[in-house]
Amino acid sequence: MKKILCLIYLVLTQFLLYAQQTISLDSCRSLAIANNKDMLISQEKINAAHYQRKAAFTNFLPNLSAAGGYMRTSREISLLNDAQKGALGSMGTQVNGALQSGLQSILTQNPGLASDPIFMALVQSLGSIDLATPLNQAGNAIVDAFRTDTRNLYAGSLVLTQPLYMGGKIRAYNKITRYAEELARQQHHSNMQDVILSTDQAYWQVVSLSAKKKLAESYLQLLQKLESDVDKMIAEGIATKADGLSVKVKVNEAEMTLTKVTDGLSLARMLLCQLCGLDLSAPIILEDETKEDLPTTLPDNNAIDMNYVYATRPEINSLELATKIYQQKINVERSAFLPSLALIGGYTATSPSVYNGFENKFKGMWNVGVTLSVPIWHWGEGIYKVKAAKAEARIAQYQLEDAKEKIELQVSQSAFKVNEAAKKLAMAEKNQEKALENLRYATLGFEEGVIPTSNVLEAHTAWLSAQSEKIDAQIDVKLTDIYLKRATGTLTFLSDN
Questions:
Q1: Is the CB of residue 488 less than 8 Å from the CB of residue 411?
Q2: Pairing of β 152-165 and β 63-72
Q3: With contact defined as beta carbons under 8 Å apart, do 176 and 325 qualify?
């Protein structure tokens, strides 16, 4: 729909820029809708609400997130103290010393062993073996094995979360966003009807002033002809100079009226161009300006179904959607104080790792679990928030009921004005016929010399007034029909004129 309106707008604009074109009411509506900034804004609000609804739906789906980090520390964690490290590092030296001390103690206690060749050979063989070096190396290897080297810490994780039960919050948010999207559409439709109403008012104002301009020109021509006739009669001595002055005054008044109508028509045409997004000086002619007499079709307003009106009025639909949104907000507030359950799974890796001793390598493990959160006590906060949400829902319901009452009154008033406009048009047509007949007889009598100039001027004034009232009545019928359609919610993009 938006692309079609933009295309119509571009095509009509190009035509109107280069030539004086006759445009219809539907064309004016198309241009106004395509050019109106409020319509563009409301369309973007629909787009925003649509994407918000899609974003809300993703809360039903699993959520995957990744996290990582690095930390540099000034000291590393040590599982052995300094004494233990020193003992392990000198383990061979201590063992060798203890062995030598043991052998010397045995010789001291048993001097006879010194003459035993086997024992002495054993002592010599043990003395020639280097036990300290390998044992010290083994001790240092143990010390190095217990070193953590945690000055550079790395960690990374992948976490998958699947909500199982969130107290109804996710479902409520999805409903709220769906209602919000429809609410944006209803507001867009309401803006469209407002734009159509403003455009129609400006359109018929131009048509009315154009018809009155033609009427003022005709009236001026009649008075100029009468002025010419009176001047001839004054020259022949049939009429007085007072008659001539009276006619000239009326001619001047007619010229002033024509000037005012012309200026008003220019301003009204500029307003219509502004609404349609055209250049203010665009040479446009409206389709109904070229018609000698405006066709009027009286709408049937005898059987207006208010239930149908409530179903078509965007304001009622918007308030109903707002009521539903506030009802869902009650569920949202209540869900914050209900248990929430979620399934969690993931993978965590660290460096250094401790799965195979302390290693400066990335190693990790999978994990899966369930989290349950149960609110226990919040000093009645949940109760108060739920009661506040219920109060807001009741306010929306009261606003909906009040809007229905006002719309019913608006429809009744609009229907009454339609009937009143129809009666005024019928009376204006009769008055116009009588005024035209009166002008014909007055003109004929004046030409025959049996009717004075003042009576002819009165007949001209009465004819002008009757013609003007008829134009006003015809425009009033058009406008009251539009107001009734706006009140009943049936004002559409395409007119039925």
A1: yes
A2: antiparallel
A3: yes
Answer whether 248's CB lies under 8 Å from 230's CB.
no
| Local structure of 284: helix, strand or coil | strand
Dihedral, CA atoms, 291, 294, 297, 298, nearest 10 degrees?
Answer: 170
Q: Interior CA angle at 195 toward 312 and 192, to 5°?
A: 40
**Contact criterion met (CB below 8 Å) for 23 and 287:** yes
Q: Are strands 284-286 and 152-165 parallel, antiparallel or unpaired?
A: unpaired
Where helices occur in 58-90 by DSSP H, the ranges are 82-89
**CA–CA distances in Å: residue 12 to residues 26, 271, 289, 390:** 11, 17, 18, 51
DSSP state of 378: -
Token pair for 264: 């008003």
The 8-class DSSP code of residue 76 comes to -
For residue 482, give both structure tokens. 């539009």
Domain ranges for the chain, please list them.
Answer: 2-35+168-337+377-488, 79-147
Residues 6+ apart with CB under 8 A from 483: 197, 414, 417
Three-class SS state of 354? coil
Alpha-carbon span 356 to 263, nearest angstrom: 95
Q: Does domain 2-35+168-337+377-488 have CATH number 3.40.30.10?
A: no
Token pair for residue 210?
């154009």
Give the integer Cα–Cα distance in Å for 344 and 260.
79
Give the pLDDT confidence of 5-51 residue by residue, as tens digits.
555 545 555 544 444 568 889 999 999 999 899 999 999 999 999 99
The residue with tokens 């103290």 is 81
CB contact at 8 A, 206 and 378: no
Q: Quick check: 490 and 428 in contact, CB under 8 A?
A: no
With 0-12 / 13-18 / 19 or more C-beta atoms within 10 angstroms meaning exposed / middle / buried, residue 319 is buried
Q: Are strands 284-286 and 21-23 parallel, antiparallel or unpaired?
A: parallel
Distance CA 333, CA 384 (A): 10
Residues of the chain with pLDDT under 50: 9, 15-19
- Whole-angstrom distance, CA of residue 419 vs CA of residue 185: 33
List pLDDT tens digits, range 237-267: 777 888 888 889 989 999 999 999 999 999 9
Determine contact, residues 473/428, Cβ cutoff 8 Å. yes
